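Running this now, will post back.
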Amino acid sequence: TLRRFTIGAVLAVMVPGLLCPFAPNLLTLYVLRALQGIAGGCLPPMLIIVALRYLPPKVKLYGLAGYALTATFGPALGTPLAALWTEYVGWQMAFWQIVPLGLVSCVAIYQGLPADPARLERLRSFNWTGFLLGYPAIAMLVIGLLQGDRLDWLNSTFISTMFCGGTLLLAAFLVNEWFHPLPFFKLQLLARRNFAHGLLTLVGAVILLVGVAAIPSQYLAQIHGYRPLQTTPLFLLVAIPLLIALPATAALLNLQQVDHRWVMATGLCLMAISCFLGSFVTSDWIRNNFYWLQSLQIVAQPMVIMGILMGVTTGLPPTEGPFASAMFNTVKTFSGAAASGLIEGLGTAREHFHSGMLVDHLGNNALITSQSLDAAHGLGELAHRIHEQAVVLTSADLYRVMAGIAVAFLFVIPVLPVRVYPPWSTTQPSSR
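Update: finished.
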């Protein structure tokens, strides 16, 4: 049943989390985290399934706002919690924090979800071929993206193997999903314009969410030596107000007069403005200078994510909810890894470029070089100053890339999605 499966998934997340601090070696820790990831991947789809199946039309968007917390509030709260536990309690709490939350979740699930009749015949029709193809495919691609910058991308045989093998397995997985009677991914849903647009825009939105969090934290750590705990207020500035901004955005979209496409466009514009202003960063910027940039994210993120969710789910039959949620969550998770790889790879390349340009500029001007050495009292200080300026210029470049991504997805809105109305509205949504 849905209730038993969800409670089982929560328990399967809790148990590895409880055991991780006792792992005797790194391999055991990897195995426990992999098992935790498989179980954790079962949970977000349950939110969409419950919202589509059980929530009344008037409050369905508020349920989706709860799901949107997994893409906005959760990641923003992760760094502050990790910093809090490691600084004041112990690193073990970074793993054990799931236990009390999981117990509360199990009680809430047991009390809140109805007891459906058991459907054991579904176990016989489980898509084992898809699982055995899809899981290693995604794992190999994610490993390649996350380790590519450290191992020099395609110059590494290991990374090349991860990308080639993952791509071949992914292609075989997609072919299997197209023909399987009970797939994980129902690719035919991509024929719906709003669904295709939602997945496409989700990729850009996740890249932006990762970027606007990673760029200032990396800048503050490298330029001013901030520890994670010192960066925490920057994350909390976004995380806490989202608890109000997400329901407020749901209330806005629940109005029949409001077009979700305009809401998405406004959110992307605010993200683009925030990133464009961030491109003026200098070495004098400290944490306070990023507050006004992050404050725009409080309004922008709910507009984009809630607009995507409304477009994807409105008019979607509850029977197709599991397929849609599986595709949505996989794309969201994979995009997070792709965003990390993009930021690390592009950041490294631009930092090397700017370092080389600064060194060439100084080397070609003997007077400047002499003055710099006299003022800095040695080559070590000069190297530090070059590195500092390279990091600043790289941060500005990354902000420009994020702004460009926001603008690019902004231009897709007039072309692909169609107008939908709130779930309670008697106006029929488009079937396209």
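The chain has a mean pLDDT of 88. More later if anyone needs it.
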